[in-house]
Structure prediction request, 604 residues.
Amino acid sequence: MSAAPAAPAEQKLDFDPDALREKYRAERDKRLRSDGEAQYLEMSGRFAHYNEDDPYVAPGFTRAPLTDEIDVAVIGGGFSGLLAGARLKEAGVKNFRIIEAGGDFGGTWYWNRYPGAQCDIESYCYLPLLEELNYIPKEKYSYVTEIFEHSQRIGREYGLYDVTCFQTRVTSIDWDGASKRWIVSSNRKDRMKARFVIMALGPASRPKLPGIPGIDDFEGHSFHTSRWDYAYTGGDTNGGMTKLGDKRVAIIGTGATAIQCVPFVAKYAKQLYVFQRTPSSVDLRGNRPTDPEWVKTLKPGWQRARRENFAGILTGQTFEEDLVNDGWTDIFRNVLALPKSDKPMTPEEIGRTMELADFRKMNGIRARVDNTVAHKPTAESLKPWYRQFCKRPTFNDEYLPAFNQPNVELVDVSAARGVERITKKGVVANGHEYEVDCIIYASGFEISTEFRRRVGLEINGEGGKSLFDHWADGFRTLHGFSTRGFPNWFYIGISQNALSVNMTAMFDEQARHIAYVIKETQARQGKTVQPTQEAQDAWVELISKLQLNNRAFLEACTPGYYNNEGTVRAGLGAGTYTPGINAFNALLQEWREQGEMKGLEIGT
Prediction:
């Protein structure tokens, strides 16, 4: 039998797809670990200081416990909590309180003030409430100082400082059926009574540590990037870390955080060792100052239009103009967009076409490494051998050149599936001990680990039932925001709603919707609101039917939080509304315009 002819998309290729598939498999297998997500340590017990210590506030803060009653408790003061507060105020809901663990607003951008920290979504789309506050970011991609200041700006302009408890960690919320209130308990011995609760913790609120043997034996200095110790390094988010001039530094991790901070540490440290298990895909950033002439052309509604254009391109929609025109939209236009065809493509043809486009894109990423990094063995180690969306893409113009500096050494630990151990003096990898003065953990956040661990507090609904037991077999919600058995409880985050890489736009629409539901419940003299069983079941069934069959893709990926470190339990975003954020927002808007509160049971 003769071989089948090559598909048109495979003709005249300048690479061998089969060879690339085999290379991807081999590189994945080198990194697979049997312990999956258990390889990371929870920041509790003897490791709690990595999470709970706050370098930005004076020690010794105290206040009297609160036992008063409020209409709404918003848990979290990052962008999702700020947006909840802003949209509640706009809806006329006034008696609410924000409860935040940090000493100010900002959430991730309060804690994550490492040098070079920067948003990787265009700031004109990412920073929320720009039109409402008449503010234009200084650059296409804002750095942390501007982002943190914008968080504070929202807090000031919406009067949220007056209704926020800072330096307070909620430990549990418990439904009291007799009073129809949530009892909100905290580490400050609070017992607040809230009619409604909005969970606004965000997906990147709890940092994690690699479970390296001997991690607490090290006698030098160590910290996590989410708690950067400028007292030790000197300087600030812009650099100036002159105290590292005589220091040997190890950075463990090469994800999105390390991509940004490595060039800054490399500039000041006497010696920098970067320990890498899996290289990131690093594309061009191309940051630039905001053009004042462009600002003059903006019309009312420009930010929503820009966000929808960005989100639409990222879900395969066709637009006459790519308003954002950056690395993200380039990926989706050139990797995920399908060519025009006179006849419909089969699912197999679609998958094959997208795979070949992905190969081309990643070949370009790898070629950029060759063109930038002089030392060939280092360049080979920095090349990502996986599909584009196996790990979150990164964009940076300084990371790869940093490895041309004589004081910077990349330590590839993929063969051993990670660092072997940590000693009193340093880090052991590939059988060699690297003596260092400081270890910086760039190991990210609890994004896809078990839900109870990520949330960090207990949630008990009707009859004392735990939310985590209720969701043991997966989310059960209406629109991703509320669940039966937990009256007056709402969740802003990634659940059975639409996922977007532009998280703040996603949070904003969720906050608008939740504020509407609370306002309407109050207007209708309701004491409680929760999904009907029928509506919840129907939504869960719809979400199940909409799921893309991406298990094979995830199983082929290198380990990371997108595929639960290779265990492929579900993958980040599994169980979401797959038609995309624009379609989901339109669905919610139509639901609100109908004015029926369809699918919700209002109790009196």
User: Anything to note?
Assistant: The chain has a mean pLDDT of 91. The two ends are 74 Å apart (CA to CA). Residues 172 and 458 are 4 Å apart (CA to CA).
